[in-house]
What we know:
The protein is α/β, with parallel strands linked by helices. About 35% of the residues lie in helices and about 20% in strands. The protein has helices at about 15-35, 55-65, 75-85, 120, 125-140, 175-180, 195-200, 205-215, 245-260, 310-325; strands spanning about 5-10, 40-45, 65-70, 90-95, 110-115, 160-165, 185-190, 215-225, 265-270, 280-285, 285-290, 305.
Amino acid sequence: MPKRCFVISPIGEAGSVVREHSDDVLDFIIKPAMDELGIVAYRADHSQQIGRITDQMFSSILTDDLCIAVLTFHNPNVFYELAIAQSAARPVIILIEKGQTIPFDIRDLRAIEYDLKPRPLRDRVYSKQIIDHVRNLEACNWQVQVPFGSHLSPLGGKPELFKLYNKVEDFGNTERWLDLLRNAKETFDLSGVSLRWWLKINAFRPTMLEKARQGCKIRLLIMDAENPALGQYVNNSVGQRHHQLPNDIGGALAFFEELAEECPNIEFRQIRTGCLHQQQSRNDHMMLSALVLYGDGTSRSPLLESRAASPMYRAMLAEFEALWNANAPRE
């Protein structure tokens, strides 16, 4: 059965400027993208179901695979339906005509700005942008959070305190990992052998500095190159390289030293005492724990996602605190 996309859009009276514009956006921008992806796109006025239109609209928002919201004309019904979709943590792609202002409360959300000039429609400029958004959703397993509170339970859903991913890479792309940092308010912790993967993300440094300057306390734990347990992490038979670890750790050390000097809310320590059993990424509401395996690489390790209300979150946080305190700076 194909996936379905509910288009939240102003509709207007038949023959009106609003109806003509909305039909053009649907026919020449949205549908070409959805057709290429094999997704059925439709508006509320296309439904042939018997019953109240509002009931069908609610059902479509809450059960369809994704929504596209067209904010052009600032229609109040569109904003109402968009709020429902966001409260239910539904995947939503936002469109607005170039030159129109996005309201303040949703200005930080990514939006595709389009026009209806012949050349970009012919070249499918905006359809391709929609396809890219859908591909990103696919990479995240169609999982999104309530945008105004990652710790909130989605409308109509039960709080999920614990989730297991078969491997780290199943969690999603770098944007989803960065969202863990972006959604941090008071605290953000990272621990790993070298954290070299994070250092490869271009937006990591500026995002971390921004959060720290906003008052978020950031703590980073990496292994000390002289820790006698370091060599026991490496299994050459699965492609891990022992000789590269000291260089990775040295590069991370220089990176984090510079950050800590630039902002006092960023602090890092090296693990001389004890060793890691999992690599952790944590904000106020969520923790991701990748098990350290001798038999495979980190990207293919099982990943545990736990919410702040769960015993797993508290247990993993206690482990981080134990290592943090055991490796306090020497006097």
